[in-house]
Design a protein that fits this description.
486 residues, mainly beta, Immunoglobulin-like, 26-stranded antiparallel sheet, 35 strands
């Protein structure tokens, strides 16, 4: 039975007074797997010369309502910064006030105000900073939505010394399946409208892009610039992609990319070629290998007409399918030469608590001392410290046993993927979220829409890289690694 969880990294623990934490069990289970909230974080520069403690105070719903940062000394501590927050009934942030401690008193630093509609969609976002004893606007964003809750417009004010000088507008249109089909950005200032770009796409019902056109403004009309057309295999994975440039008032074929898969869904090769008059010439190629669980184990990148080696990356995993190391190598003098190695450590609930980077120095690994740690609190706000030693103390009031985190009944595919990820299993009633490999929350918890024992997740907004899918059902919590390759 869990009562307290301590994660200590690189420095000795320091005895500190506890923060009285009252939390909502269900909401914190979503993020940390148990009712663990961050009580304090001690951050030290290497050598321990500068030590700062960040302490957190929670409301009864588990939201952080105050963050207090102080500098530690042998004989005590001095306040540095204080951030206070308020929330609505949906636990969405309403107001933020940041203050700095100066000359024995708290002084305004910046503040943020947000408003929402009845469905909790963000409507306005206002950022102000304190200057010359007055609040000066530095950012103001306005959002509108259609009847289906899709983002329709995003308006960013152009502010000069706090005064309105114009606005950037981003405008979206959707098809009947709520897929984005047009997207354009313009600037309105001094009564003039400046058009930047516009995209037009056609999609399958399930969201896969069939064609994509990028346009720029020329006087009073939109002019085509380039186009992509995609073909798919039986699993709706891209099998062939053609690229076109707009030239002499018509589309001119310029390149193509061919995709190969294992079992129709696991990408094994991506070959891009350019058209030279009537001959296809190799440009670059990426190849992947997998282990028996279809987790990617290597990625090889070759380039040029002869597809010469350039970069080679390998991954290793622990018995819970979590990445424990990444090794990056470059091709030089007809050999692969180690460049960088990343290693990861996890807490008992499967979250990265340390990312360590090493560089190869002649005949041995040298420590670059580039440590990065991210974690999120119960409200899924993110904290990051780079180049520091870190000690984190968690406070836990859960009666839930660790065994609930060892369930392994769900599978995900394809892996690597590009725009969509499928979850398959017997029990799909629950929630999912997506994290970066460093623990940052990229897609907060959402309900799993069950579809005949499978569910489809749209990840097209994420860039290429390594990610973690966290799945919570009534039978347990699982974390599944996957890769996006585009």
């Amino acid at each position: 039975m869990l009562k307290y969880i301590y994660v200590i990294l690189f420095i000795s623990a320091i005895t500190l007074s506890a923060v009285d934490v009252h939390i909502n069990k269900e909401r914190n289970n979503q993020l940390l797997g148990a009712d663990a909230t961050v009580e304090n974080v001690i951050v030290s520069r290497f050598g321990g010369k500068v030590r700062v403690i960040h302490s957190y105070t929670y409301n009864t719903a588990g939201d952080i309502i105050e963050t207090l940062s102080s500098r530690l000394y042998l004989d005590g501590k001095t306040p540095l910064e204080r951030i206070s927050r308020t929330f609505n009934d949906n636990h969405s942030e309403l107001n933020v006030l940041a203050e700095k401690y100066k000359d024995g008193q708290w002084v305004n630093y910046y503040r943020v105000s947000k408003t929402y509609d009845k469905d909790n969609h963000l409507l306005t976002y206002l950022w102000e900073y304190w200057k010359n004893n007055n609040w000066k606007k530095t950012a103001n964003v306005i959002f509108t939505y259609d009847a289906n809750g899709n983002l329709k417009t995003k308006v960013d004010w152009v502010l000069v010394d706090g005064k309105y000088e114009g606005e950037y507008r981003t405008i979206y249109e959707y098809d009947k399946w709520n897929n984005v089909i047009t997207h354009q950005r313009i600037l309105v200032s001094d009564g003039k409208t400046t058009y930047f770009y516009k995209t037009v796409s056609t999609r399958l019902k399930t969201g896969e892009i069939v064609s994509y056109i990028y346009m720029k403004r020329d006087g009073s009309k939109w002019v085509n610039k380039y186009k992509t057309e995609n073909k798919f295999n039986l699993a709706k994975k891209i099998s062939l992609s053609y690229s076109y440039n707009w030239k002499n008032s018509k589309w001119e074929l310029s390149g193509r990319t061919q995709y190969s898969y294992l079992k129709l869904v696991y990408l094994t090769q991506k070959l891009t070629q350019e058209l030279d008059v009537s001959t296809w010439v190799n440009a670059r190629r990426t190849k992947y290998t997998y282990n028996s669980k279809f987790l990617i184990t290597s990625e090889t990148f070759d380039y040029g007409a002869n597809l010469g080696h350039y970069k080679y990356t390998t991954w290793t995993y622990d018995d819970k399918d979590r990445v424990v190391s990444e090794l990056y190598q470059r091709w030089d003098n007809n050999n692969w030469n180690a460049q960088t190695r990343l290693t990861y450590k996890y807490n008992s609930m499967g979250f990265v608590v340390n990312k360590h980077k090493s560089t190869w120095d002649t005949f041995k690994w040298g420590n670059s001392k580039d440590y990065t740690l991210k974690f999120s609190d119960s409200k899924k706000r993110e904290f990051e410290f780079t180049g520091y030693d870190i000690s984190i103390k968690y406070k836990n009031t859960s009666d839930v046993d660790d065994d609930r985190y060892t369930v392994n009944t769900l599978t995900i595919y394809p892996n690597p993927t590009s725009d969509f990820l499928y979850i398959s299993g017997e029990e799909l009633q629950g929630k999912y979220s997506i994290y970066g490999i460093d623990g940052s929350v990229l897609i907060p918890y959402r309900q799993i829409p069950e579809q005949n024992g499978n569910t489809k997740i749209d990840i097209s907004s994420l860039s290429a890289g390594f990610y973690l899918l966290r799945i919570e059902t009534k039978t347990g919590i699982q974390t599944k690694p996957f890769i996006i390759s585009k």
